[in-house]
Design brief:
The chain is α+β, with helices and mostly antiparallel strands and 334 residues long. Helices cover 27% and strands 27% of the residues. Its cofactor is Fe(2+).
């Protein structure tokens, strides 16, 4: 996704509080329009972090899948999912199954993996009657707004994700790793720097340490890049959190995050992170037929609570390896 002067060929509407919006005039097949403007769309997404394309009148999962495949260099198969998705076709998914009355706070997709999508693709087949916005937030702005001591600690230690896979809540290990073969799961964990422990009840517990701050491989920007807040116990609805702890114990939550040295991350830090995200959030309600491109490194995204049916298709595109995003510590620590 290299920035390009071709981005200026598109008339992108930039307004405070809203994502960049491009009103397309696709009089024929939307795929033909996307094919004609592919490089400009990718350049705009890289330059501005995201772009919402309105006016393509997208219809049908097959057509959207073809558009995703055309926009992407490659589409990724999801691994290590924290919630189930419907699979429409290879590399084309539904949004994550998550209670409609509970928001999914800001995060970078699969930022706990060592290989993650560089580009997210979203298309709206069904807009809810209320809410359900996919908000976006500038990761560099979020990083710059955080307290220096927190940034320094996260730069030095990274963050730790602990997961407990079972068949009762969240994604099972079979869903997350795409196999029932324990040996294959173990090989995957070894290859992806994941500590694992099989539980007596047949469940799986994993721990993985990841960088919390990365450098964008194209723009060179330092970005706050993680799921520290989203996958932390204090982001859960209080009643849900209490229930899960009562049933599974504090160490048995489906997921939780800590500092890289395994110290707990308190509710105050999670609230701070979510406040900073909110201060930098841009939002625009979905309309049926919308297409959105999001640079997954420079831009976090969320999903607000909603009412009514909502159908958003998702493509995870253009895999990036964490090793290609290593920041310069001297520059990042303020």
């Amino acid at each position: 996704m290299l920035p390009s002067s071709r981005a200026f060929l598109l008339d992108v509407d930039l307004q405070p509080g809203k994502p960049p919006i491009l009103r397309a005039e696709a009089t024929g097949d939307p795929l033909n329009w996307v094919a004609e403007h592919r490089e400009e769309l990718r350049a705009v997404a890289c330059e501005h972090g995201s772009v919402l394309v309105r006016g393509l009148a997208l219809r049908g999962a097959d057509k959207i899948g073809a558009i995703f495949r055309h926009l992407a260099n490659t589409l990724m198969c999801e691994r290590e999912a924290f919630a189930s998705r419907r699979i429409y076709s290879d590399g084309v998914y539904s949004s994550s199954a998550w209670p409609a009355n509970q928001p999914m706070c800001m995060h970078h997709e699969l930022s706990y993996r060592i290989e993650f999508p560089g580009l997210m693709l979203f298309a709206c087949l069904g807009a809810p009657s209320h809410g359900g916005v996919t908000g976006v937030a500038d990761a560099a702005a979020v990083l710059n707004a955080l307290p220096a001591e927190l940034v320094k600690r996260c730069m030095q230690e990274g963050w730790l994700l602990t997961r407990n896979y079972n068949d009762e809540i969240g994604a099972s290990y079979v869903q997350a790793f795409g196999t029932e073969d324990r040996g294959a799961v173990e090989r995957y964990c070894h290859a992806n720097a994941i500590e694992f422990e099989w539980q007596p009840d047949g469940g799986l517990r994993t721990r993985q340490r990841r960088s919390a701050i990365v450098r964008h491989p194209v723009t060179g920007q330092l970005c706050w890049f993680n799921q520290i807040a989203f996958l932390n116990e204090w982001t859960l609805d209080p009643e849900v959190r209490e229930y899960l702890i009562d049933v599974y114990g504090e160490d048995g939550l489906p997921f939780n995050t800590r500092f890289g040295n395994a110290d707990p991350i308190g509710e105050d830090i999670v609230q701070l992170l979510n406040q900073v995200y909110e201060a930098n959030t841009r939002r625009e309600p979905w309309q049926v037929g919308d297409l959105t491109l999001v640079d997954n490194i420079s831009t976090a995204h969320s999903r607000e609570a909603f009412e009514g049916p909502r159908e958003i298709l998702v493509g995870l595109a253009d895999a990036v390896h964490l090793a290609d995003c290593s920041p310069t510590v001297e520059v990042a620590i303020r």
